[in-house]
What does this fold into?
Amino acid sequence: MTPINVATYSSGIIDLATATEFNINDIAHGLSNICRFNGQCREFYSVAEHSVSCSDLAKPEDKLQALAHDAQEIFTSDLITPVKNAIGNKYKTLESDLQKRIFKYFDIKYPVPKKLK
It folds into this structure.
């Protein structure tokens, strides 16, 4: 597999193709700096804010999944669905693979139920 080396806020360089350890501070920092809807909103609305709102609305047993459901976006960004669909399976595979590894590292139940998305 071809390495996908990226820099993180506190952890240095990691290879997205093989990483199995993730830093919660990198996730929180990254998601707080990514604007939802590709920035096409009247006021800055971060992916972190969205994740916390989802968690607040979720049942107690689903809160952690709801909070982490977009954690992989620190690497893939918050692409809007039409762009994800245009890029196709390679993007979707990378995104789901990252989410699966992040959830495994933090011992979060995978996959995220559609009701939480």
Remarks:
- The beta strands are 5-8, 12-15.
